[in-house]
Design a protein that fits this description.
By secondary structure, the protein is of the alpha/beta class. 33% of the residues lie in helices and 24% in strands. The chain has a six-stranded mixed beta sheet with strand order 1-4-9-7-6-5. A four-stranded mixed beta sheet has the order 2-3-10-8, with helices on one face.
Amino acid sequence: MSNGHDVPAEAVRRFETCGRAWIGALRHVWSAGEAGLADHGPTIEGPPLLFEIASLSWEDPIVREYGDRSRLVRRAEERTGHGARPGAPPEGASGGTRPDAEQIRWVVDLLRARPWTTSAWISLTVPAEPPGAVPSGAAPAPAALAFRIRGYRLMMTAMFRAQNVHRAYLAYIPLHETQAAVAESLGLPHGPLRVFVDVPHLRVADADRVATILASQPEPNAA
């Protein structure tokens, strides 16, 4: 099997924690973004973004300090089975869906049979999604997930067609949980979570809050 270097190493930014990756995504859009317009109003739109996160946890100190407290509480309730309506999607899980059990089973079976394959990817797009389907300020789910075994680790890439990075951590940590579950089914350790966002952006309405967060953080050390 290959060593997992599917793209040049210098093309992928690497962060140790979800919080550092979140700050990196915010700074990327803040420093390189241009004026744009989305369904929910004026935005700051950044260049495409590709990065990896080594460690993800709801206990991440940056996420706990600067994240949206009400949404973090709601996530905690969902994890413990309290406060969620039966069958309700996770908060912010619009613009796509999380993979269902059948999709995950297909990925696991394929990788067991063909551990070298690059074909273990699943689409999560919703055809003809109506305008306004993604709530303002939500963290959309990815359009696709790609799984592969490289270096005897389970790698996963989440591909977003667009993402408001202001609350991106709400998507990244559940994605890591999916990756870890597939890795466990295969009896393998998991590698970092790789994320590609084609159109990372911020709402202009959130600019003051983002400026405050960035002012509180030193330049993140991406390897």
